[in-house]
């Protein structure tokens, strides 16, 4: 069953800085839907993509944004990425954009690819991800105010810098900004977004500690972000 909730009310440009960093035309006041496959699809597709957003707009090309959080180079994962991209394009008839979010420069350089799938000299398919890493989103401005003004950008910035010297302070500022606002739907979504992105790192424990006394405990609630952990879905609309 699909549930729906409005995200980013008052922030119709929530996706703009993300698309700007990717060098992709930013949609104006898009409708964004989190697409979560059912259990059969998950068994077939595997865990190489963490969440998929359907971005629909009347003024730019609609697309699918598939996000994969990577903490280190992972040999062979491009096969899973190719599988996801082909399946999503075929099922939804929209062009997919693969976005790989990385927490260190070595992983970001690896994730940029391109990854060729070939037989001899013949290339059957090429996967060319877009990457967000520490060099793509500056640390400056990643504070509580940024979390209030640009919550999605603040969450991504805190993720890609979570292993830097400023990582703990950035996560603290993000937690304070998200949990102090009135937009509970956005806060819940982004708290889990960061939870998924920090998987397998000591920073996840710190993130959980920051949220322990708040109303947002994503490890104890139904998933609205990760396609891999639990089947669910949420429709998010960026509207003024």
Chain-wise SSE layout:
Elements: E1 3-4, H1 16-22, E2 31-35, H2 39-45, E3 51-56, E4 63-70, H3 77-92, E5 96-102, H4 105-111, E6 115-119, E7 122-127, E8 130-132, H5 144-149, H6 151-160, H7 167-179, H8 184-197, H9 202-211, E9 234-237
Parallel strand pairs: 1-9, 4-5, 5-8
Antiparallel strand pairs: 2-3, 2-9, 3-4, 6-7
Q: Would you kindly provide a written description of the structure presented here, covering whatever features stand out?
A:
This protein is an alpha/beta fold and 240 residues long. The protein is built from 9 helices and 9 strands. The protein has helices at 16-22, 39-45, 77-92, 105-111, 144-149, 151-160, 167-179, 184-197, 202-211; strands spanning 3-4, 31-35, 51-56, 63-70, 96-102, 115-119, 122-127, 130-132, 234-237. The strands form 2 sheets. It has a 7-stranded mixed β-sheet with strand order 1-9-2-3-4-5-8, sandwiched between helices. Strands 6-7 form a two-stranded antiparallel sheet. Helix 3 links the parallel strand 4 and strand 5. Helix 6 packs antiparallel against helix 7, helix 6 packs parallel to helix 8 (184-197) and helix 7 runs parallel beside helix 9. The longest helix is centred in the middle third of the chain and has 16 residues, at 77-92. The two termini are 27 Å apart. 41% of the residues are buried. Mean pLDDT is 82; it is low at 1-5 and 228-240.
């Amino acid at each position: 069953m699909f549930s729906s909730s409005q995200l980013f009310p008052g922030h119709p440009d929530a996706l703009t800085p993300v698309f700007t960093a990717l060098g992709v035309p930013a949609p104006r006041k898009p409708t964004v839907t989190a697409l979560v496959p059912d259990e059969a699809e998950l068994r077939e597709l595997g865990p190489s993509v963490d969440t998929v957003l359907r971005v629909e707009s009347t003024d730019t090309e609609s697309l699918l944004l598939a996000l994969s959080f990577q903490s280190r180079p992972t040999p062979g994962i491009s096969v899973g990425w190719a599988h996801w991209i082909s399946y999503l394009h075929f099922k939804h008839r929209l062009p997919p954009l693969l976005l790989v979010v990385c927490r260190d420069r070595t992983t970001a350089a690896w994730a940029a690819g391109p990854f060729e799938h070939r037989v001899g000299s013949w290339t059957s398919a090429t996967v060319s991800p877009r990457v967000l890493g520490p060099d793509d989103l500056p640390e400056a401005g990643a504070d509580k105010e940024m979390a209030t003004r640009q919550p999605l950008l603040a969450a991504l910035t805190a993720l890609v810098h979570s292993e830097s010297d400023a990582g703990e302070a950035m996560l603290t500022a993000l937690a304070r900004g998200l949990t102090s606002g009135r937009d509970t739907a956005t806060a819940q979504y982004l708290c889990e977004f960061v939870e998924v992105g920090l998987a397998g790192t000591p920073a996840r424990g710190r993130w959980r500690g920051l949220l322990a006394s708040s109303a947002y405990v994503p490890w104890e609630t139904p998933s609205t972000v990760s396609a891999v952990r639990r089947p669910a879905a949420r429709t998010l609309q960026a509207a003024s």
